[in-house]
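Retro notes, structure queue

What went well: the backlog is down to a handful. What didn't: a couple of records were mislabeled last round, so from now on we paste the full input next to the output in the thread. Example, using DNA ligase D polymerase domain-containing protein from Planotetraspora silvatica:
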Amino acid sequence: MTEKVLVRVDGRELSLSNLTKVLYPAGGFTKAEVIDYYTRIAPVMLSHLHGRPLTVKRFPNGVERQSFFEKNAPAHTPKWVRKVTLPVPGSTMNREKIDFAVVDDLPTLVYYANLAAIEFHVPMWRVGVEGDPLPPDTLVFDLDPGAPATIVECCRVAVLLRDELERDGLECHPKTSGNKGMQLYARWDRGPGTADYAKGLAQRLEGAHPLVTSVMARKVRPGRVFIDWSQNNPAKTTVAPYSMRANSLPTVSTPLLWDEVEKCDEPGRLVFTASEVLARVEEHGDLFGPSGSAP
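Corresponding output:
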């Protein structure tokens, strides 16, 4: 029999289930602990989800078992969860439109955590009050190291990117991906064209630094850092700040201090688990605040 617990979250009633199920077997991390993490991180995470159509990666039986991406809000989604209907050209499910959920509040975040939605992914644009897509408000660079390169080399490239962005009047903020790479975000108020701008900057750095490639082809990436500028395509999403990741341990996509980036000399220095991220937020607050605050 499925164990269920009724709780009230900010005035909303939710039924939480299978709280003792272990979702991270290597660390014994349970579904209850996943929900607890998202509840406690919500004060800083919600501003980065606010207004953004949600894609989740769900792991009903834990990170070592089958998973699936979900864009369309489930049929059983409570009526109080905000949803927006948006076109999805090229959908693999042959759908013309999808009803996306939007995580604007704590009850919605807890609802999805209870679905074993371990990973939260969002685009670099938001929807307006009526659900209409707005121009991009964020520029993102996804740095992916090709072995034997690691996040150490990603940090070197991040500093190069930061300096170029500053010359263009853009302030950026780093975070780990929670996997092997990292991302840089910058607030963007220059209308459409983020992908073209990001591609041009990536190509400029590629021409000046042998460590960098702007090409996705695997054959050119060993020992180099691929600057994935294509994440700025409106149809794509990137893992949200403070989202957990489905690794052996409950790692998190973690905002960083530039001092940590500049001094990184071994990959393990920039691996943070859920409990460590909660402690970091208590110490530093939201390191992503300047580029991620809701409008």
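Agreed that this is the format going forward. Reviewer comment attached to the example: Residues 31-49 form the longest helix (19 residues).
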